[in-house]
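Morning!

This is the sequence you dropped in the shared folder:
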Amino acid sequence: MDPGSKHPKEAPPISDTWRVVPRKLVSQKMQQPCLVHIYPTGPSMGLRYELGEEPLVLGRGEECDIRINDHSVSRRHARIERDGESYAATDLQSTNGTFVNHARAANSPLQDGDYLRIGNCIFRFLGGGNVEAEYHEEIYRLTIVDALTGIHNKRFLLEFLEREVARSVRHRRPLAVVMFDIDHFKAINDELGHLAGDYTLRELAGLMRNKVRREDLFARYGGEEFALVLVEASSQGASDLAERMRVLVEQKSFEYEGKPFNLSISLGVAAVTGEEAVTVNDLIQRADEKLLEAKRAGRNRVVG
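The structure's back. Tokens below.
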């Protein structure tokens, strides 16, 4: 068993060079099931590994069929092999575990669209009828969705906010932005490891995702910082929602590998009425300044 470290490096930004390929334009010849590397971002993102009759071993060692140069990955971490009409993932006594859709895998069958986590790295299994079309659609999805948390990313946030700022000014309707981050997030990484930090980000995103209206946007801004864009929300309405979310996180009990811990978040609120000219950068900067005020005032609070 490999004693691999739990401190993966920060990866560069997502490439924006991909687009959706309509199913009817895609060749039907490439039907081979595959794994697509979706996290971390960087040069490896989007790489496709086709699966065949022979088992494939994933790991950090040079002898592995799929080599993953990340210290959260053991030298021989997991094996993917055919299991009847599909494939299955088997953990090879790795240090940090193998997971299918967030559930620890011993010998777990893979279904089309499943997420396979190897240490800090995430792959998606594509095994449907038209793998080539699914592949291109997955690459497009990665340009607008944060692979770790499953919510929208900074790129999509800025595009969404650009439209809503213009709409706010044009129709003279209010618009609010809430920026928040996790208090003392570094301590979680230091005490429990970076995999626990990733778990925390996923759990926090899942906790809040269902609390956001359909017309609003919840996105990961970067690192442990998140953003909410609240359409036609007043400053008071945005502050009230931010306070409800603060309490929601404060009262939630988190647990990673049997170790319980609690979180708190600090939130900054910026709002416009639609009567003034404002840019996307102005609005984000205002919310960020309020977030900084919340931090300086002692954290675990809303400033708007």
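Headline: The radius of gyration is 21 Å.

More detail when I'm at my desk.
O.
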